[in-house]
Amino acid sequence: MEIIDGKKIAAEIKDELKLAVAELIKNGKNVPGLVTILVGDSPASESYVKSKAKSCLEIGMRSKIEKLSAETTEAELLELVEKYNNDKDYHGILVQLPVPKHINEDKIIDAISPKKDVDGFHPMSVGNLVIGKDTFAPCTPAGIQELLIRYGIETKGRHVVVIGRSNLVGKPITNIMLQKKEGANAVVTICHSAAKNIELYTQQADILIAAIGVPHFVKADMVKDGVVVIDVGINRVEDSSRPKGYRIVGDVDFDNVAPKSSYITPVPGGVGLMTVAMLLKNTYKAYLLYGEQNG
User: Which residues are catalytic?
Assistant: First the structure.
């Protein structure tokens, strides 16, 4: 059994991007820029945004945080998005979700230029992903594929079982793994809460991707020997022995599933750390694709 080290792979990606950005600076070129828009006062969202901005600065990218009050109107937010659609210094726009309830999330996502949709949520990006065109893939699913590729895990013709059908992870990773490309070309089954006897599907998995949001949902008797396990879950469970009163666990019962696995991601330290790395990679990609138009 081998632990898939998300921290190590994320650091590798950041180092590669740092070298690429340094080369741009050396040649007197503009650098990729990412603007993150935060509406409201959610401590979790604020922490995520600061983490993204810090990572940008670490590799030499331009970064900006637009922090707006919870009372910001939908029209004001749309106006700000349009401003950055036309700003040549910023190649990626990310609106931190969720937004306050009085703002239509779909309308905001639709307003972001597909050329700057580094989150991969715009309907055009989603459609291109489904039909196999080059596009911006959502960062967490893209990070899963990157881990599989960099660990040399064969996916062609193998049975990938995905638990969860969210627009953030379940649906996009299903479409990514179906494509006739490197790190994909798999046979994919997607399961969800309506499935009866879900273990009938999970026990067939060569690669199991758990993204259901239920702590320790996947038990040892639900997987076969030699399975590759990718745990996307980030769940808080009470733990009075910890200073904060809780600990973070995945959707997989790691201690009991790991001995049956050939590869497995830990939580924390696995998929979660890849999300920001892939966001930076998407921003650099946006710069390469549209940089001449955008700055």
Answer: 52, 96, 119
Amino acid at 184: A
The pTM score is: 0.94
Query: What burial letters (b/e) apply to 167-206, b meaning 16+ CB within 10 Å?
Result: ebbbbbbbbbbbbeeebbebebbbbeeeeeebeebbeebb
**Across-strand partners of 3?**
264
Cis (ω within 30 of 0) for the bond into 141?
no
Please state, in angstroms and rounded to a whole number, the distance separating the CA atoms of residues 271 and 148.
Answer: 11
Amino acid identity for residue 56 in this structure: C
Q: Is residue 293 part of a domain?
A: no
Distances (CA, A) of 31 to 171, 206, 282: 32, 41, 14
Based on the domain organization, do 47 and 157 belong to the same domain? no
Q: How many domains does the chain have?
A: 2
Q: What is the mean pLDDT of residues 237-244?
A: 86
Binned at pLDDT 50, 70 and 90, residue 239 comes out as confident
Instruction: Look up tokens 């996916």; give the residue.
Output: 155
Note whether 109 and 37 are same-domain residues: yes
Flag whether 102 is in a domain: yes
- 63-92 burial string, b = 16+ CB within 10 Å, else e? bebbebeeebebeebbebbeebeebeebbb
Given a cut of 50, whether residue 295 has pLDDT beyond it is no
Q: Is the domain of 220 the same as that of 256?
A: yes
Q: Provide the residue range defining the domain that includes 231.
A: 139-272
Same domain (yes/no): 108, 146: no
Query: How many residues does the structure list for the chain?
Result: 295
